[in-house]
Amino acid sequence: MRQKRYEKGRKGQEENRNFSNLNFSGKRKSTKAQEEIVGFALIIIIVAVVILFLLSFSLKNSEKESVESYEVDSFIQAALQYTSQCEINARNQSVQDLIFDCVDNEVCSNEMDSCEVLNSTLRGIVGESWKTSQNTPTKGYELVVKGNNNEILMLKEGNATNNYKGGLQSLTKSSDSIEISLNVYY
Amino acid sequence: MQKNKSGQMKIQQMAFMLIAVTLFFALVGLFIVNVLFSGLKESATVLEEKNAILLASKLANSPEFSCGDSFGTSRVNCVDFDKTMALKKNVKAYSDSDFWGVSGIEIVKIYPLTQGNTLCTVENYPNCGRLEVLKASSGTGVSNFVALCRKENVEGLVQNKCELAKIVVTYKDAGS
């Protein structure tokens, strides 16, 4: 009887010891897992920083746009100097003069309306310079001529896409103010 | 013996981990270098292109080509057709000294397109569509819009006539 009680007590002691051992290894595993999580998080942070760095580099390419819109500005300046078929005071009017004539409702010497000549001339110039089709880089354009804040001419061709370059030119003559804007869609 | 084995395992694990981390950073480094260098090449091309476009505009406004005050008021992006035609005759002096630093200069009429693609000569001037100031052998061409102006005799009266054209400048690529 005594022997039995002694053995029971010993067994109990051994179980208790094993249990405390188990607890200890569980704690160690938990610390190791925490360390691994911290390492993983560090790697993720490093990768995120690298990705952000690369993204900032790739988003910096806005310089090309300003160069390309320079072409539109040059076009407007050159088109304004074009000599039209409208003759007033024995002199063929330039597109720039023709816009002011149109605002003032002037009539050309061949009895043609200055606005009509302006429309046909600009249609020809813009159409020939910015050919629009699915096979060309230019998908469309929109030219607006405003005189004293009133729209006097609007030419639109092709599709208006989100990728476009624009140019704006303002002119003033006595009391008239003109604004020419051109958007070319790619 | 058991402890020794476990130590070896740990050393192996560490070695593998070190190799993996080194490989990872080497790959990331390669990727960054690749992106940086491709960007550098691209920015060099963009810069070259920008310079060429600006050069096209600069050439159009240079004394050799520009209209100046010949057509009434001072004009920008205006090429004097008569002057350029005269320049074509003496272009050898400019090309020999690489005066403009480009390999080709050409003026192409855009509107009206009545003369098509006919090359301008003294005989057919001004009824032509293309004036080759400096003939380009190879390279990249960039263009800019200009007004091509000349003096015209209409029924005894000298009149200014401006058409729309493009000045095409050909430059040698950075790589070539």
Question: How would you describe this protein?
Answer:
Chain A is of the alpha+beta class and 186 residues long. Chain A has 2 domains: 1-60; 63-185, Ribosomal protein S3 C-terminal domain. Chain A is 54% helix and 25% strand. Chain A contains 4 helices and 6 strands, in the order ααββααββββ. In chain A, a hairpin with a 2-residue loop joins β3 and β4 (150-158). In chain A, α3 packs antiparallel against α4. The radius of gyration of chain A is 40 Å and the shape is rod-shaped. The longest helix of chain B has 59 residues, at 2-60. Chain B contains 3 helices and 5 strands. Chain B has one domain (46-171). Chain B has a 5-stranded mixed beta sheet with strand order 1-4-5-2-3. With 176 residues, chain B is α+β, with helices and mostly antiparallel strands. Chain A binds chain B through residues 47, 50, 53-54, 57-58, 61, 63-64, 67, 70-71, 74-75, 77-79, 81-83, 90-92, 94, 124-125, 128-129, and chain B through 28, 32, 35-36, 39, 42-43, 46, 49-50, 53-54, 57, 75-78, 110-113, 144-147, 149, 157, 159-165.
Give the SSE layout.
The complex is a heterodimer of chains A (186) and B (176).
Chain A: H1 2-58, H2 63-80, E1 83-88, E2 91-94, H3 95-103, H4 114-129, E3 140-147, E4 150-158, E5 164-173, E6 176-185
Antiparallel strand pairs in A: 1-2, 3-4, 3-6, 5-6
Chain B: H1 2-60, E1 78-80, H2 81-89, H3 91-96, E2 104-111, E3 130-134, E4 140-154, E5 157-171
